[in-house]
Amino acid sequence: MAAKEKTLEDLFHDTLKDIYFAEKKILTALPKMAKAAHSDQLKAAFEKHHAETEGQVERLEQVFELIDKPARGKTCPAILGLVEEGQEVMKDFKASDAHDAGLLSGAQAVEHYEISRYGTLIAWAEQLGMTDAAKLLKQNLDEEKKTDAALTRLAESSLNQIAA
Ligand code: FE
Ligand code: FE
Ligand code: FE
């Protein structure tokens, strides 16, 4: 018998496992980033998003339940690479004034990866008629977008301070 043809449902499930792995990795990275941040505002932003990320993981677990699959991640090389780049900046720019700028830009790269994944998952969920899953994923997407915007504001305000 020929191998069963893969469907959009399978792709949705694979990508859900990818972002689930990524969110769990981010959950362990954010406290380290908060600890490393020199600026209190950046520290606070990472701590806030860490709490949000806990809720995001729970929403993803609800989506797994909706499709009747166990909540299981699948290694996401992209997030591992992004986190590794962040660790490099923290190490190489430890005592530098540029440290937080580097840390912040790494965090934004992570948010952009998440935004891309959630955007796709929502589109597929809607295509597959999975309204409840789409709603949960949209809540995660909104938090990622707000975090990205907050980080942009922080970057701009500290740049303004330096310029002043
Ligand atoms: Fe997230
Ligand atoms: Fe991935
Ligand atoms: Fe995020």
Question: Describe it for me?
Answer:
- The chain has 164 residues and is mainly α.
- It has a single domain, classed as Ferritin, core subunit, four-helix bundle (Ferritin, Up-down Bundle), CATH 1.20.1260.
- It is built from 5 helices and no strands.
- The chain has helices at 8-36, 40-66, 77-92, 99-127, 131-163.
- The longest helix has 33 residues, at 131-163.
- The protein is elongated, with a radius of gyration of 17 Å.
- The mean pLDDT is 95.
- The structure holds fe (iii) ion (3 copies).
- One fe (iii) ion binds next to helix 4 and helix 5.
SSE blueprint:
Elements: H1 8-36, H2 40-66, H3 77-92, H4 99-127, H5 131-163
Helix pairs in contact: 1-2, 1-3, 1-4, 2-5, 3-4, 4-5
The chain binds fe (iii) ion (3 copies).
